[in-house]
């Protein structure tokens, strides 16, 4: 992420969409704010944080003033800021609902980190709140905004791999700090499943354009490991899709860093390894002609999200991954936890429509579009 | 497999163990018989086949005479051949039991192709028959006789990968010919599971040295595909092991050729890809120091099996993969099919002992031993 | 190389071309004779060797009789064998000229191992002898008969890599045995250059379809290493081609096994690694779209050579790599040794014509042709 | 390069070394200044640029004031800045000598980008000027400050690869803009050789710890390509080292991006690919045991340079890559250009001492040291 001084942009700031970043954790500091600096359609106009010092340091570093920094109590003051058209919620999962609803109330569009909420019910309430307030809601699924994942989807849906048979995905890493909020049930709502396993779930649904028909799951919470007193260490789950397609997923907070996606068809395959990293995604499409690793222009996943949502705001269009897309994943995750609890396969309500929970605006890929 | 003329061996033929190969299919022709030619402790002394012409062509090509070729009806005549100490059963699965029992009756040691039989009950009967007849029985699990799989096992069991968390394996290829015996239930006893999925099952059990505690499975038999009128196209299954270790396996007869094994621990991983091929196995062991792909001297998987069993015969020792090892896999496969049929998780009888179904003689790896 | 019994071929043996293999070393035993067994257009009809026992063992193993085995003194008796239409010379380099000329005299077509001879003068004499005798002469450059090398050539010549700029190739391995004939100047005529470095030279000329304009070379013959008392351990050389294309080549008999070829153009590249092995060649073609590793049907390099020359004999056409192709490499090798001796760049006689030393018949690739 | 707000460092700024960055091009903006922000021992205290606006934008973005920005005319005013202990020269090559000498005159230590100068004579003058002024001079060879390159050197020098035989390196990319200063002889002093080919040269010298004994070179300057009216498009060169070790190098401004280094010994090899990139270096060490890709903690090449030179200043020690190391490369590059001009091999003055031009302070690798 090269750091550049503010170079005049083709679009003036009047036209670019100003975001308030809500929450100044590692993701905001290391990825989101730098990404916003390179964005064509968006910029950071305000910061919301409980740590005043940190906020001011960031403000200074990013050409904002002390007046652009707000505490959580002052959140509603953003209503007065016409230049803040959207808020980006980067808080612990359990706070997503409250802040999305507060944002909706003051008429701001909302980009919310994944998982959208703690469960399908809360997630649906957030969708409803935004609809009522007539603001857009987007779930920040960065992997639906990369050329690699779109190329994987295209290969799968084009038929060139033949009939799709099986899918396999792993997303794991080691969470070392027992005090991390991600390991607290009240804040995170679960362990690796809603945090990193969600990528496997979300991208398999995206690549197929379909919803699973059933799930079977198992989870592990090792006794005596202080990290896993509240949340699971590992979830493994199986999803059945139409046509006998089956997907295996593994996610863990205590296994070597791994992120893979493999789709096997009768005539070919797609392999991504790594599949969900911020950078360096490696895609191989194989068929009877050989193996192909496509190249794409450089991009920033977070920058792509900023831009897509900003364009949706300008054009008044539903984003590709709206709140409904977040709800759809929570429906499946609720079923995964239920299966793990009962030891039984759980059937899901049939969804016939393709891409049923996705919006009308397709993301522009680098090199495409305006 | 370079073809060499008969070069005098250090051991005279009197001491080498003569095998009768029972069944002259593709595996015998392309792998087993050439492998035997390079074996240090074994040689092919006789052939049993229903196709006289084929048998004689083979005999000529391998320095045997017409007198060394038998029909299935003449099988018992092998009793008169003192130089035939062992038979290698390379017949369709449903014929394994009959020929193992016939071999036992005439006092020949038996090396039997995997799967050992059609189900655990038949497999156990074969073990019992050989025990009663006081002949050795070995299940031909070639992947337990390679340095790569042993290095994978050593990495997993040494603790250097940290606590083992999850395992993932795929074995698939495309079976094109609807008339193949492997697609006939009466001959094969199942589809890809007992044929190729068995490698995933067997090697996961081998690498951990443990038996699964439960399984959940799902299978797919596509309507209208003439290949899968009798057997399944795909099986996916999950196995739970002690300590919360979980293994995901996928096998298909209608998906791109794939053979992988991945074991993730908290501090490292083992990846084999390809994992189950005859040649070119690629093993990567990764930990915090880096990635390591060990090199091994050249070997032949089938030659290793011939040699191991020959040495067991000479030394009067139980082979590393005796009939019991074949039974153990059938127990799990029976449970997999039951789970797929009922949609329910199936609990297995606890087995506490490590390597409970394996023999006392460990395979010598290339470069080791006498 | 699976070993198969003699399965009836579409072409009857009357039509297939019978070869006499002259020389029963490792290459004949492990590669050539097994390859001939799988050939569609060729078969082994006779053997010429000084070791009677070895010849008879081979004969037995390959369905020949004692009458098909000849000593070198008896070479001219092959004249009486109408079924022997071609001889394949697999002798130490210094014997190539004599046996090619003897073969020509008795009217047999000649396939001769590379290098064709010891130097350009001898090589040209062999070409002349065959022309006078009206027999075909082919230099056995197996790498000009693989789909990978043709795909590399096509990528380079198609323009899709942009203007070609630089080429880099290495071919090395460790020669351990100080007594090997390859280390005797009188037999080999040089060290790694004519043996393995020749692949780099030959394939660079093939891929470009052009002849070098100048060479610069350096060689190393380490003192005190008994292996290199007569021949060089290592040759490094640079070749200049038209348009400023330059190629770097390294070859050694005392360096880790390596075989690579890299061609860099302004818009893309070709990488082969390994580039010259009998099996498992890996080709990557890269351009702005991505990286592509094409797949090809299985084939045998030696089988392809047998077939190509057999077809040339049947059709009366010049093979793709005739004697002239061998001469062309000797011209360059002579210049390489001269440069290494003088420390000076050596200019070569300009050759304008594309593929000037290649024949009219292009090899058929697997999957193509009749 | 994650962007972080100014987090209090263990060392106070009083002890950290303040640098003035001289020249605000792409390298300064995208690599050096961000790297300095993460440095433990160094920080950016001032900027020197001809573009006032750009300087002030940078100053704002990096927590400096307008008073910290100087024009080139004001360079000598840095003398008054006690907090500026070192200057980092990031100007076109032809300006290095002037600014190093001006820095020495005002008593500032100098870190100078590579190549140190335009030729060995100018480079030596810079070394002399710094010695007389009693300031330290370091050539910014970032690849001598990475754990990967040190591990490569250790593997080569430890003897575990056996006797080293041959080395091969390529560094190329496409320079598109005919107006780039790198394509102007007066500014750059050459084409790809002093810019990117220099990495091959410098790292081969580093890995061996030796100086070449002779060189042979060829260069290409295509007619009609406006980019190469002044400087060469491509240089290929061969270097001879003691013991018959030979190195082949290729560098081009008009070939697909490539950066490789391969060292072949009799018992093993080192391969780096990419070998010279800012990030993502991939090192493979291979011997008879297998292939090993070591892992290292995250680091920043430019940050490592800043820290090393800062530590040298604090400890009064010669840096690992002092001015003399830059001179040594110019000596070889002068010979390369001479050889290319004359078409003749050029002998170099023997240098017996190991690491003759390197300083006493070895770089600390990430994870090591204080």
Automatic annotation (TrEMBL), chains A, B, C, D:
Pfam families: GFO_IDH_MocA, GFO_IDH_MocA_C3. Residues 347-370 are annotated as: Disordered. Keywords: Oxidoreductase. Residues 18-140 form the Gfo/Idh/MocA-like oxidoreductase N-terminal domain. The keyword Ribosomal protein does not apply. SUPFAM superfamilies: Glyceraldehyde-3-phosphate dehydrogenase-like, C-terminal domain, NAD(P)-binding Rossmann-fold domains. InterPro entries: Gfo/Idh/MocA-like_OxRdtase_N (IPR000683), Gfo/Idh/MocA_domain (IPR050984), GFO_IDH_MocA-like_dom (IPR055170), Glc-Fru_OxRdtase_bac (IPR008354), NAD(P)-bd_dom_sf (IPR036291). Residues 151-270 form the GFO/IDH/MocA-like oxidoreductase domain. Belongs to the Gfo/Idh/MocA family. The keyword Endoplasmic reticulum does not apply. PANTHER family: OXIDOREDUCTASES, TRANS-1,2-DIHYDROBENZENE-1,2-DIOL DEHYDROGENASE. This is Glucose-fructose oxidoreductase. One of its GO terms (molecular function) is oxidoreductase activity.
């Amino acid at each position: 992420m090269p750091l550049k001084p503010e170079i005049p942009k083709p679009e003036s700031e009047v036209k670019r969409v100003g975001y308030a970043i809500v929450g100044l954790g590692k993701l905001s500091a290391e990825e989101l704010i730098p990404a916003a600096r390179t964005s064509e359609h968006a910029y950071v106009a305000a910061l919301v944080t409980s740590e005043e010092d940190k906020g001011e340091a960031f403000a200074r570093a990013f050409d904002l003033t002390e007046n652009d920094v707000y505490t959580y109590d002052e959140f509603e003051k953003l209503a007065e800021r016409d230049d803040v058209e959207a808020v980006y919620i980067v808080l612990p999962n359990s706070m997503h609902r409250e802040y999305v609803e507060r944002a909706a109330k003051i008429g701001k569009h909302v980009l919310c980190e994944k998982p959208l909420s703690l469960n399908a019910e809360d997630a649906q309430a957030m969708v409803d709140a935004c609809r009522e307030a007539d603001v857009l809601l987007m779930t920040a699924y960065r992997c639906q905004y990369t050329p690699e994942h779109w190329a994987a989807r295209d290969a799968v849906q084009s038929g060139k791999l033949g009939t799709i048979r099986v899918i396999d995905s792993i997303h794991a890493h080691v969470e070392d700090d027992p005090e991390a909020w991600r390991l607290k049930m009240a804040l995170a709502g679960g362990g690796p499943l809603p945090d990193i396993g969600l990528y496997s779930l979300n991208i398999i649904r995206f690549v197929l354009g379909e919803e699973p028909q059933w799930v079977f799951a198992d989870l592990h919470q090792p006794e005596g490991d202080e990290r896993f007193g509240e949340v699971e260490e590992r979830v493994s789950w199986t999803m059945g899709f139409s046509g006998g397609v089956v997907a295996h997923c593994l996610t863990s907070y205590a296994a070597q860093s791994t992120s893979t996606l493999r789709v096997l068809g009768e005539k070919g395959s797609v392999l991504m390894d790594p599949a969900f990293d911020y950078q360096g995604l490696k895609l191989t499409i194989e068929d009877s002609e050989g193996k192909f690793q496509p190249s794409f222009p450089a991009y920033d996943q977070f920058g792509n999200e900023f831009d897509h949502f900003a364009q949706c705001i300008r054009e008044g269009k539903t984003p590709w991954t709206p709140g409904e897309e977040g709800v759809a994943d929570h429906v499946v995750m609720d079923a995964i936890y239920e299966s793990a609890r009962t030891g039984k396969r759980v059937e899901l309500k049939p969804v016939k429509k393709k891409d049923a929970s996705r919006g009308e605006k397709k993301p522009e890929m680098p090199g495409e579009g305006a």
